[in-house]
Write a structure and sequence with these properties.
349 residues, Immunoglobulin-like, 3-stranded antiparallel β-sheet, mRNA splicing, Matrin-type domain-containing protein
Amino acid sequence: MDREWGSKPGSGGAASAQNEAIDRRERLRRLALETIDLAKDPYFMRNHLGSYECKLCLTLHNNEGNYLAHTQGKRHQTNLAKRAAREAKDAPAQPQPHKRKVSLRKSVKIGRPGYRVTKQFDPETKQRSLLFQIEYPEIEDNSKPRHRFMSSFEQRIEACDKRYQYLLLAAEPYEIIAFKVPSTEIDKSTPKFFSHWDPDLKMFTLQLYFKIKPPEANKPQPAPVANGTAPPGVPPRPLPPPPQAPPLPPLQAPPPAAPPAPVMNPPRPPPSAMVGSQPPPPPPVANGPPGPIPPPIGGSAMANFTPGLQGLQAPRLPPPPPPPLQGFPGQQMQGQAPRPPQPPPNMGH
C-alpha cells in the first residue's frame, strides 16, 4: 500500500502529534493577533537581541506570533491566575464606596399634555420672553411637574445646533415634552423667571426672559449688493463725499507782445473814407491784436459787412451825424442824398 493506514484516499496521511501541535499554535496565534493588543500587555518585552520575552513566565520567543501563541497556552494562563491570587491576598481590605441604587420606575405613559406658549416683549427693557402653560389633568396625587434646560449637544434626537437649547417638562404619568428655544442667556432674576403649579386647575406655568445681547464692536459690514442697493432690512449707507478738484495753478502774466513791425507803403484809404471829419481806421498790424471795427459809413448795402467776419453779425450802432456841408450850395456832395428840386421864384405874376 502506498498510503498510511487509517487515512482517506487523496489525503496526506494521518497527522502526527507534532503536526497537530504546530497547527494548533498557528490557529491560536491568528486568534490572538485579532483579539490581543501587545501595546497593552504588561508582560511583553523586547530585548536587545531583537527577540521577545515573557516577563511573567521568563520565556524567550522569536517573533510576536510565537509570543501570542504562548499567552494562550496553559503555562501562561496558570501563572496569570497565581499572580492574581497573590495580589488579592497581599492587598489590604478597603471599604467599598457606597453606591446609591436608583431604581428605574416603570410606569405606563398616557400621552402628551396640552400646552400653550405665549411670546412677550417688554418695551422698557427691550427683552423678549416666553410664557409656558402646561395642563396636567391626570397628574398623580402629591406630585408636581419638573423642568430643566438641556443643551443641544446633550440630546440625541436632533442634529446638534449651538444656536438652540431645549426646555424639558416632565410629570407622571405623562410623557416628557421639550420646547426648542434660542440658546441665549436667560435672565434668572426673581421677578422675571418664575414657575407656579396650580393644584386646583392642574396647570403648570413657567415664564422666562432672555438677556439682551451686547452690541458687537467688530461686526463685519454686510457685502454690497449690485446696483448700489442695500439688502432688505439694512439701512442705506451714506454716500461718500464728492472728490475735491485739484487746486488751480497761479495765474501768470501773459508774455509781452512783440513790437509792431513797420508797414512799408501802407495802402491808401478809398476816397469815400476821406469824406467827412472822422479819421481813417488804422492799418492792420501783423502779429498784433485786432483793432476796433469801424462804424458803417453811408446807407449802402455793404454798410454792415465786415471783411474777415463772415457769418458774424456786428452790433448796430447809431448812425453818425451828417458832416457839415462844404463847397457851393448848388454842388452835390459825394456820398449825400440829392436835394429835391425847388420851384422857381415868382417872376411878377
